[in-house]
Model the fold of this input.
Amino acid sequence: MATPQELLTSRIILRAVLPVIKVMVQDDPATKRRFADVTSKVQFLARDDGGPVGTHLIFDKGNFEVVHELIDNPDLQFSFSSVAKMNGFFSGKPVLPMIKGFTKIGLLVKVLGIMLGLKILMPDTKPKTPEQAYRKVKMTLYMISTALSQLNKSGDPEMVKWTTKQPERVYQWSVEGTDIACHLIVKAGKTKAGRGPYTRRKPFVHMIFKDIDSALPVLADQIDTVQAMAKGMVTNDGSPEYCGE
Done:
């Protein structure tokens, strides 16, 4: 049976990492072309004594959606004998899943390509073009904001402790000169991640990156936030009390 940590890791992968595929489908011209006419459901499933773990992706002629439930007849399915092996597959380890629907070679090649595209999220993966740098920052921020919410929803002790004591607050991240923005709403132990700027009121804390080149080293942990702020790479616009939390 999967350990609590393995289940938490799989939750973050399925609910925070896979959804950012939408950025590639919408923003990367090559990926957009490849999936423009694709109408398919692709499932990832891990066997476990506590019950199967997984989710499925819906590609619908340029639209993309992640549905957190398992279906009976996906067009393509990647099956793993354990949650640990599924986690390993997404972290780049040499894990070979069982593939149902492998005769649909065109779809399989496209999906494997998009899985490889997720490697851009790895901290040590350096973008080769300005367009890749833009996507890396956008995907990473979307992933981080969603992962924080999923940590809370999964009952992570430290995250729950932090969220429980808070009134309604909005934490936002954005990059100047771009459309990149996302936010996390926190209220009395509940959280909700969102893409785009929060428009109903001013965020409690708003981390603003000067540009893409400033965001990259901070998100890759190559420079800490305090140093980045001192260098003018990041502006932290928000309540002074945040510093004491």
